[in-house]
Amino acid sequence: MLVNDDARLVAQVAAGDEAAFSALYRAYLPLVLRWSLRQTGDRELAADLTAEVFAASLLASGRYRTELGSVGAWLLGIAGNKLRESRRHRRIEDSARRKLGVEPLAFTDSDLERVDALVGMSDRLEALISKLPDEQRRAIMARVVDERAYGDIAVELNCSESVVRQRVSRGLKVLRSELEQRPGLEGR
After folding, report:
1. Do 100 and 123 lie in a common domain?
2. Any idea what the Cα angle at residue 59 is, between residues 5 and 23, rounded to 5°?
3. Residue 130 CB coordination number (10 Å)
4. Do both 140 and 101 map to the same domain?
5. Minimal CA–CA distance to 75: which of 40, 32, 39, 14?
6. Which has the closest alpha carbon to 13: 50, 61, 65, 63?
7. Is pTM beyond 0.85 here?
8. CA 54, CA 35: separation in Å to the nearest integer?
9. pLDDT tens for residues 135-158?
């Protein structure tokens, strides 16, 4: 996503736009999840931390300013704060949970496999997308990731909608072919 598009998306989240939050979540889930996994070394904690980051981002979206940095950096800043907060309060939270007789939330193996697959697939897709020709990569990012209209993309890329459609189609064909040639790598 482009910086201006990211900032616009966060502003829409702040205005209560659920679709914008969904788009923000889809766009940044892999980044936040990967960071959380690297920081904690634990898939369950990474999934919990990621959920907390997006909940906090929803509440803090009205305070986001572009001068604070990119949306990705802002979300990772929230993640760092949540991780520090979690480490400080873990003992208090565990004690309160025990007093209330509430069992800790446990993820199933299937849940954890989905976390692993998402992180692995995201890394692999990023690598494959980065190898595409620039015009295909830009068209795919704008259409598929940012979910922008073909007409808007055509204006930005200074070409016709037909050319944008062609670039998206060709790029996706290459990605599909690469993914089909080497199935099963996403979990590695």
Report:
1. no
2. 35
3. 8
4. no
5. 32
6. 61
7. no
8. 13
9. 998 998 888 766 788 899 999 999
